[in-house]
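Budget justification aside, the reviewers requested a transparent look at the raw inputs and outputs of the sequence design task funded under Objective 1. We therefore reproduce one unedited record. The lines immediately below are the structure tokens for a 112-residue chain.
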């Protein structure tokens, strides 16, 4: 959906004075400047499966779960991969919680 500039202006002209002050501009800018997707790569393509071993991995990026079957993790968290999910996803355990994580957000933890 595309909005006309005048629609955006009126939506964020909170006090209706016809002038967008600094706070109103900041609110409008923040609304439209938010990234819609993660700045990190999406999980791998269906043709390329992740070659995992049941082992410990380190999260290279933060990952916020978008559904109940996904697992949230923060950069530096150590997870144990216990299986393979959909293409590009692994089943991992962190702090007793299990869920799917993007395989390309993980790197093997050496020595474990």
């Amino acid at each position: 959906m595309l909005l006309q500039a005048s629609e955006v202006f009126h939506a964020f002209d909170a006090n209706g004075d016809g002038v967008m002050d600094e706070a109103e501009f900041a609110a409008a800018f923040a609304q439209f400047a938010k990234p819609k997707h993660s700045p990190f790569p999406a999980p791998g393509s269906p043709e390329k499966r992740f070659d995992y071993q049941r082992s410990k991995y380190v999260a290279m990026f933060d990952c916020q779960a978008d559904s109940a079957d996904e697992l949230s993790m923060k950069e530096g968290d150590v997870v144990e991969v216990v299986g393979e999910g959909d293409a590009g996803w692994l089943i991992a355990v962190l702090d007793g919680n299990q869920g799917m994580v993007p395989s390309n957000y993980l790197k093997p933890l050496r020595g474990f």
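The helical segments are 5-12, 22-33. The chain has a mean pLDDT of 75. Computational costs for records of this kind are itemized in the attached budget.
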